[in-house]
Design goal:
about 375 residues; mainly beta; four-stranded antiparallel β-sheet; 27 strands
Length: about 375
């Protein structure tokens, strides 16, 4: 949350007004056939990262801010409130249903509820559910009493129907404040989380330009520091574990007219950078299927790109963010209209739909 400026950095919305609104249609696919898009959840508040587990899709809702507005700057005020949540989407009774597993978490947004940040990352594995919450420094005017003390933290979410709770599991921002691994400005915005099979969690600190690893006992430490390239900081936004056992990291560093953003490959044991794949606009979500095909959300291009071997195909998705793949049937799930709350936001003088999650078949 921090300030409106860092909200913009985290979501890429500084450039969003020039991107236009992508149509909700599909193109590309295998053998000339067009993938099929289904909307499986609507009424979401700034849906961001996704996680698939046991037939369910979990989505981090960054929220819609609140009534108390703080700060003034080029992007205007940030309005704060307890509107962030983690939501479960599931198939029941012949239809997709969803409910908020845990709610009432800190959120900051534009006055109309768009371009929020809050709980931006979620990861489910083996019955455990994790979320990660952005950070705001005390000088920003954000409260520090509970539940605002969850800012900058890794959260363990206990599911109990729609009465779940979120407890602090580790302090991610404290790693930035203590070590400043990237040695640039002292900034933190925990933005994505991935639970690993060995019980550790990896958190991408978008403002810190690094990854933080959390042990099964809750000890957080620096893991991977990403170098600048093309005279810009990396800004890691998304995480996935590949079938090769390696960690993949998407970054925001890239422009629509100059697609230089990378998907980095990282050794999950040592944190060493093993390589990267470039040629993307700002990335806000990644996923891999069991064949190693890579899916990439390009926020400002308004597409999800599939990279299979040397071939790239696209499906148009308006302001896509988090991605997840069903390991059994390969269906792809993506957050759409990810910079809008449930009522939509105004861009280029037009009101957008509210936040959604889509399922893409045949992609």
């Amino acid at each position: 949350m921090k300030t409106r400026t860092s909200l913009v950095v985290a979501t890429g919305v500084a450039l969003a007004a020039t991107a236009g609104i992508a149509p909700a249609t599909a193109s590309g696919g295998h053998g000339g056939a067009k993938p099929v898009v289904r909307v499986i959840a609507t009424g979401l508040d700034n849906p961001r990262q996704l996680s698939y587990a046991d037939g369910n899709v979990y989505v981090a809702e960054a929220g819609r801010g609140g009534k108390k507005c703080i700060g003034e700057g080029p992007e205007g005020e940030t309005c704060i409130g307890l509107s962030s949540a983690v939501t479960k989407i599931y198939w029941d009774g012949g239809a997709w249903q969803h409910y908020r597993v845990v709610r009432g978490l800190p959120s900051g947004a534009a006055p109309d509820g768009g371009f929020a940040t809050g709980v931006d990352g979620v990861s489910a594995r083996w019955g455990e559910l994790w979320g990660v919450e952005t950070f705001a420094p005390p000088e920003a005017g954000v409260p520090t009493t509970p539940p605002w003390n969850k800012l900058g933290k890794l959260l363990r979410v206990e599911q109990n129907g729609d009465h779940g709770t979120a407890e602090i599991a580790a302090d991610i921002t404290a790693v930035e404040l203590r070590y400043n691994p990237h040695k640039a400005a002292l900034e933190s915005n925990p933005y994505a989380v991935l639970a690993l099979p060995d019980g550790r969690e990896i958190v991408a600190d978008a403002a810190g330009n690094d990854l933080v690893v959390v042990s099964p006992h809750g000890k957080a430490r620096p893991f991977t520091v990403f170098p600048d390239h093309d005279k810009h900081e990396t800004v890691p936004t998304s995480l996935a574990l590949g079938p090769d056992g390696n960690l993949y990291v998407g970054e925001l560093n890239g422009l629509t007219e100059k697609p230089t953003a990378r998907v980095w490959k990282v050794d999950p044991r040592t944190g060493k950078i093993l390589g990267w794949k470039s040629g993307f606009g700002p990335i806000t979500g990644i996923a891999l299927n069991d064949r190693g095909d890579l899916y990439v959300s390009q926020l400002l291009q308004g597409v999800v790109t599939k990279v299979s071997g040397g071939k790239r195909t696209n499906v148009k998705v308006p302001f896509p963010a988090g991605l997840a793949v069903d390991p059994y049937d390969g269906k792809v799930y993506v957050s759409a209209w990810s910079v809008a709350d449930r009522d939509g936001t105004v861009m280029e003088g037009k009101k957008t739909p509210g936040g959604q999650v889509w399922k893409i078949l045949g992609f």
